[in-house]
Amino acid sequence: MIELEKVTVKEGSQQLREITALFGAGVFGLLGSSDSGGSLLLSVLAGQTCIQRGEARILGAPPGHVSIQNKLAYIPLKVSVPDALRVDETLALAGALRKEPLVPAAVRLEKFGLAHLAHRPMRTLSPFEQRGVLLAEALTSTTVRVILLEEPYAGFDPYVSSQLRLALRACANAGACIVLATDSPQTASGLCDVHYLMRNGVLQASFTLGVPPFAATRTAVRLQVVTENIATLVNALANETALTGLTTQGNVLCLEGNNAVDLAAAFSRAVVQSQVAVYEARFLTSSLADLSVAPSLDTSMLAD
After folding, report:
1. Which of 135, 179, 181, 222 could be stapled to 30 by a disulfide with Cβ–Cβ 3.0 to 4.6 Å?
2. What angle do CA 162, 79, 180 make, to 5 degrees?
3. What is the DSSP secondary structure assignment for residue 85, as one 8-state letter?
4. pTM metric for this prediction
5. Residue ranges per domain, the chain?
6. Which CATH homologous superfamily contains domain 209-301?
C-alpha cells in the first residue's frame, strides 16, 4: 500500500535520509523521539510536506494525489478542524467527501465515549476532543484504507485509549495500513505489528514484537534479539524490572521474563534509550526446557 524509495526531506530541524520501506496491511510503528523524523514522515505521506529526493507511492499514487484523498486519514498531534461546523456537520461533510452513506454522528462517536460531543461546535472542543472526533471519523469510515497517526493515545483517558486500540486492530485486520509515530515504547508494543526505530531521520532495522500464543499459559517467555552492540543494550536494560534473566552468545541476546507484553515494552524502551541497531527480535516459541541455554552474561559488560 505504501512504497518508499530513498525518500529524502529536510524541513527545519527535522530530516529524512534516504528512507526506503514497504508498508502493507497492518500496524507499523515509527518509534523515536519527537525530532527523530517520524512525524515528518507522516506529513510527507499525507502530502503535507514535499519530497526533495526519492519517491513515495500510496495506493499506487504519489502523496496528496486527488485519487487517494478519500482513502487516507491523517491525524497529527495538532489537528486543523472546521471551526464554523458542529461535530455532526463535520462528520457528515467527511462522509460526503468520502462518498459514504450518512451515519448519525452519535453512532460513529459512541464506541469511543464521545457521543455527547455530537452537537458541539468544533471550535469549542479541546485539542484532544478534536483529535478524538477525527480519529472516530477515520476508524468508522468504510472507505479509508490508510491511516497516518501521531501519538495515538495522547490526551485520552483509559477507556477511549482501549477503544482506540480495539478499533485500530479491527481496521488492520480488515486490510487497512496504519502507520503511527510515537516516542512511547509501551504504546508501540501494545499496538504495532512491526516497529521501526527512527534516529536522526534514518529508518533503522525493523523488528517484530508480537505477543506469543503461549504468553497466557506459561510462566516464562523468552525474547531473542540480534543486535550490533549487546553491551550497550544490556546497560539500558539494567533497571528493567520485567527482565528476570539474560543470556548472550555472540551478537545474540536472549531476554527472559514472566509477561510477554511487559518484556516487549522493556526491550523497546531499552532500544530507544541505547539507540542501537536491532536486526531481529522475536519470541521463542519452544518451551524453556527445550531450549539450549546460552553462556551466562559476563557481568563486566554492565555499567558500574
Report:
1. 181
2. 50
3. S
4. 0.75
5. 2-204, 209-301
6. Malonyl-CoA ACP transacylase, ACP-binding (3.30.70.250)
pLDDT surpassing 90 at residue 124: yes
Burial class (CB in 10 A: 0-12, 13-18, 19+), 36: buried
Domain 2-204: give its CATH superfamily. Answer: P-loop containing nucleotide triphosphate hydrolases (3.40.50.300)
What torsion do the CA atoms of 115, 120, 126, 130 make, to the nearest 10 degrees?
60
Quote the cell numbers at residue 222. Answer: 523468552
Q: What is residue 304's predicted lDDT score, i.e. its pLDDT?
A: 39
- Band (pLDDT 50/70/90 cuts) for residue 198 is confident
Angle between helices 260-274 and 230-237 (to 10 degrees): 120
Dmax (CA) for the chain in angstroms is 66
SS3 75: strand
Ramachandran angles phi, psi of 191, nearest 5°: -120, -40
Domains 2-204 and 209-301 share a fold: no
Residue-wise pLDDT for 49-63, tens only, equals 999 999 999 999 999
What pLDDT band is residue 195 in, cutting at 50, 70 and 90?
Answer: confident
CB 16 within 8 A of CB 9: yes
The answer to whether 2 and 20 are in contact (CB under 8 A) is no
Strand partners for 27: 178
Mean of per-residue pLDDT scores for the chain: 85
Sheet holding 221-227, edge to edge: 245-249, 252-257, 221-227, 278-283
